[in-house]
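This is your field. Pick holes in the following sequence-structure pair:
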Amino acid sequence: MFGNASSRQHKHGVQADKAIEHARQQVATSLECSPKDLIFTSGATEANNLAIKGIVYGGDGGGRHLITSMAEHKSVLDTFKHLEQNGFAVTYLRPDAHGRFTIEQVRRALKPETILVSLMHVNNETGTVEDVGGIATMLAEQDVLFHVDATQGVGKLPINLSTSPISLLSLSAHKFYGPKGIGCLFIKNRSKTKLAPLFHGGDQEHGLRPGTYATHQIVGLGEAIELADELRDHAYEEAVHLRQQFLAVVKQLDGLCLNGDQDNMLPNIINLSFAGVDSETLLTTLRNEISFASGSACTSGALGVSHVLQSMGVAQDVAYGAIRISFGRYTTADEIQFAAESICDEVKRIRGS
């Protein structure tokens, strides 16, 4: 499958092209959308950039107001900061104490010149699930485009883009056991949506994402999303059980704070704090035993309070002590038990109890 999919004059190119289009159909089947509305990218970061900058720079210049939230992924926040520096007005919505946004909150932020709203489906640090369906319906009534960063939700929650008025949606394969370095952008009615490319140099993906196709990665994305759909219900139930098992152990400790909306969350992400315990101390002591972090992978290398927890109004000492535990399809009950007990033992040691 080493042929160039853009070289369809020979059989190797044809084989590669067929493999790519099969993968595109696999993604379309998962999202319940037209394969013609899907653009392959190098991941969700590029897909987010293409969606946001593409709409802004590809439009007719009629509106220069944009809306996002303070709790978005860095690839979205930094993109909006770039646009602010280039003369666009951006409203940053603040989530409530549970990390949620309401339809009315988004509606109140709209202006006559608003051209795009961008919010994530599932928060990558807290696991809070947003009502993107309800928000999408309201925005469609207002004729405002809606971009959803669904990186954490695809493969874990059902998404139906044939019935939802979501305008653009980003995803990344590595969040559902696909290869790293490949993602996708859904553009509703792509042929009628004006989108400016991020770079130039070829006609691949209708000129929106030029460059030689990474056939092996695209095929991996297609297979991974199909498998994720087959296992989704079972994996979700298992994640609920593992979450309950983990929390049953750590809830024995005093001063436990669970961050995020516990009634509207993805079960495989737990964000929690222990009173009087600094997250960096826990991380330093247990890093060779357990893989966990104090925030998202894109920000956990930076010192300071999580911008997500800060936007939720979480107290400074609680935010400084926050850790993010996540588990997946292959995590076992024994591993969860070991992690929970190890964290509890270390918290007790730090507290001197």
Residues 215-250 form the longest helix (36 residues). The two ends are 60 Å apart (CA to CA). The mean pLDDT is 93. Residues 232-351 form a domain with the Aspartate Aminotransferase, domain 1 fold (CATH 3.90.1150.10).
